[in-house]
Amino acid sequence: MDESGIGIIGVIIYLAIIVFLIASMWKVFEKAGKPGWAAIVPIYNIVVLLEIVGKPVWWIILFLIPLVSLVIAIIVYHQLSKSFGKDVGFTIGLILLPIVFLPILGFGDAKYQGAPS
């Protein structure tokens, strides 16, 4: 197989991972009582995620600030974990291995418990 064949296989694998992560987020949104299709709409998906974790919508502005966005993403992931009754260990998993931990939330038996206080 030449280099172009390897590149095509890489692109197919990459696209499959993206579709899998979108499907996982779709299920997370549905479990939280939000429309699943919101997972595929840019910017609106962040608004819906902020609603799920109980943070104000204006936090979306914080996602536009370099470095601050990393901290905010960690906070949102932690609040998402807590929203489904998970702990800090699960948050670390969401941050480091979202391809494993988002499907656990979406397709697993985790139940949405409401936005944490």
Topology record:
Elements: H1 3-31, H2 44-53, H3 68-83, H4 88-96, H5 98-107
Helix pairs in contact: 1-5, 2-3, 3-4, 4-5
Can you describe what's shown?
- The chain is mainly α.
- The chain is built from 5 helices and no strands.
- It has helices at 3-31, 44-53, 68-83, 88-96, 98-107.
- The mean pLDDT is 93.
Primary descriptors:
mainly alpha; 117 residues; globular; 63% helix; single chain
Summarize the structure in short.
The protein is mostly helical and 117 residues long.
Strand content: under 5%
State the total count of DSSP E strands.
0
Structural Rg: 16 Å
How many helix segments? 5
Instruction: List the domain count as a whole number.
Output: 1
Let me know the average pLDDT: 93
Structural class: mainly alpha
Q: Which range best describes the helical content: under 10%, 10-25%, 25-40%, 40-55%, 55-70% or over 70%?
A: 55-70%
What best-fitting shape do the alpha-carbon axes yield? globular
Main β sheet profile: none
